[in-house]
Amino acid sequence: MEAKLSKEKIIQTAFQLLEDKQQLNALSMRHIASALNVKAPALYWYFKNKQMLLQSMAEAMEMQLIVPEKQPTWKHDILAYMESYFDLYSQFPCSVELEIHTVPAYPSRLEHLDAMIQILRSGGIPLAQSHLAVNSFHNLLIGFIMDYKEEVHLRQEIIDGNQALLEHIHFMRDYAEANQLRNIQQGMQSRRNRHLKNEYLESVSIYLDGLHARFCEKKA
Question: pLDDT tens-digit profile of 155-179?
Fold first, then answer.
């Protein structure tokens, strides 16, 4: 067993490699071993397989979540939590892919999820709907980040000269203008100056307002 190795060092190196690769499926134990200047079998003293490594990477990421302070209302509490998750996922490479390909079977994640569910329940949301809501908030976040990542990729392809993509953009713009699709035109204009974090938090706020209207206003 290599004395200079540790679980923490392997995880750190894996994240460093993802900074360059930007694809979780491109990460391999062999690549990590090469970056550490050791042979691949040395890594298996610490992780039985790649999936176990991914689980530990997800846990290491989750442990960096900044748990927000108590807010004036339960809706603000949830917003603060999801803002922290947005910041967390923006900090780590391939964060959403890592989230998708792992099971939340580690203490920090379970405790954070339970805390969010309890916040919703304290606001009058039933248990089943609280579970659904927390899952929806995270799925929405994953979708936002993945969509933005792909949008950035497509923009770069257009800059690099992908004429097929450019033609599709021109068609969309021209069709919306010719058929007076004002909402589509305004949406295309707003995306040029979009602020992803604000858009996400506004979407969460809309969801929270819906929960409040459905479960809390009826009781008032």
Answer: 899 999 999 999 998 999 999 999 9
